[in-house]
Amino acid sequence: MTKVAEKFSVSGSYMARICTVLNVPRPERGYWAKLEVGKAPVRPKLPEAVPGDQTFWFQEGDPLRTRVHPALTASAPPVPRSHRIATGTHSLLQGAKQHYEKGHKIEGGHLLRPFKRQLVDVIASAAGLKRALAFANDLFNALGSAGHRVRFVPSSRLCHRPHIDEREDIPKVKNQNYAYNGRHLWRPSSLTVVYVGSLAFGLTVVEMTEAVLMRYVDGKYIRESEYRPPRNSRTAADHTWTTTKEVPSGRLRLVVYSPHPDVSWSLMFQETAARTLTEDITKIVRSMKSSSQLMLKAIQEAEHQADLREQEWKAQQERWRREEDQRQIAKSVKDSSEQLNHVIQAWAAAVAIEQFLKGVEERATMLSGTQLEAVQERLRLAREFVGAQNPLELFLSWKTPGERYVPLGARTS
Predict the structure, then answer these.
(1) If you placed Cys at 248, which of 95, 125, 135, 338 could pair as Cys (CB 3.0 to 4.6 Å)?
(2) Res 131: pLDDT
(3) Across 111-136, average pLDDT
(4) Is residue 31 part of a domain?
């Protein structure tokens, strides 16, 4: 273990934790000493990964996030196995209560917002937390007893968690302003999911809120039913008012949803004053199992539509590439033609200047004395001013369309 850890520049204890996370068997204490005397136990095989298992580790942090494909195998359904009855506190909930109670400051009675985010997806008030965690534990144990594994989705996977509405009476017409305010609800960093076969269902337990008439008294809100107006004190009554607020009701809602980013599917189970969710756990487990094929079809259709969108995107990119190729071809022809015209004009100008100066020089031979000297001096100044004129250099600088841009069809690779 130490030698392997050195290869990754980590400590042996850290390497042991990695093996635990990845479910990789590692030598127990004293293994190598037993091996030397031939008493080492048989080396176990690497267990097969099951849905939800983390199968890689990235030393520098979270690798590129990849989309989860939670789908059942239609042709080869999972083989039924015998399962033991799960009891006690579920591993995801052990020691969790204290972390829910340590969080951001909230108004009295409102839903908790823990500092820690690697927690089970449970949203509740301080008064309702114990019941919410107890229900989550009973549900997880029932799912485990049925052979369905409840886990956190590894942070290296990209999953979707829908907007959770905590209101008991959800209006049919969506209120955009309320949806914005709802973003202040606490949400975990990882999804809590249960694997029914290899199909993932997201789970959220939330304590519902109800609209209650509240009265503002002495800097805080209390229920109107709890308000007792002061006797013979009109001044105190002038400094209080009522308003309707959403406050925790103590009743729970379970949201079961598809974590697939392209599938909008969910089931809601919620308590009433006469019946608790704990009484419906068997029904909830049965509903998830019976919904597997329905959600699988939705996932397959979503992935089919995603493939079509990807194909259309690739086709659109190819069209853009071809259109850009045609634009570049046309531009290279235009630029080459303009440059050639410029070379022709420059050539004509250079030849005209040279012919002019030669003509002046020939005429100057007919002169003598000071006139000849004056003309020759002017010719010298003119040649210095014009500079060397070599039309061939201009022509050699011209570029053909093919030298400016190579069309896609003419490229070798």
Answers:
(1) 125
(2) 95
(3) 94
(4) yes
Q: Looking at the 3D structure of the chain, how many domains does it have?
A: 3
106, with CB counted inside 10 A (0-12, 13-18, 19+), is: middle
Residue 342 lies in a domain: yes
Of 244, 237, 239, 250, the residue nearest 223 (C-alpha)? 244
DSSP β-bridge partners for residue 266: 257
Query: Mean pLDDT over all residues of the chain?
Result: 83
pLDDT at 174: 62
If asked whether residues 145 and 219 sit together in one domain, one would say yes
Please give the structure tokens belonging to residue 278. Answer: 């704990």
- How many Å apart are CA 50 and CA 200, to the nearest integer? 12
CA 300 to chain centre: 21
pLDDT at 247: 87
Residue 140 has pLDDT above 90, yes or no: yes
The H-assigned helical ranges of 106-232 are 129-145, 176-181
Taking the C-alpha atoms of residue 317 and residue 307, their distance in angstroms, rounded to an integer, is 15
Residue 156 has pLDDT above 90, yes or no: no
Separation CA 411–CA 404 (nearest Å): 13
Do 213 and 244 touch, CB atoms closer than 8 A? yes
Same domain for 190 and 265: yes
Question: What value does the mean pLDDT take over residues 364-385?
Answer: 89
| pTM, entire model | 0.67
Instruction: List own/partner pairs for 317-322 with CB under 8 A and 24 or more apart.
Output: 321/408, 322/408
For the chain, give percent helix, strand, coil, nearest 5.
45, 15, 40
Structural domain for 366, as ranges: 331-410
Q: Answer yes or no: is 308 within a domain.
A: no
Q: What is the mean pLDDT of residues 2-21?
A: 77
| 38-82 pLDDT, tens digit each | 777 888 888 776 665 666 666 655 444 444 444 433 333 444 455
Mapped onto helix, strand or coil, the DSSP state of residue 294 is: helix
How many Å apart are CA 102 and CA 126, to the nearest integer? 10
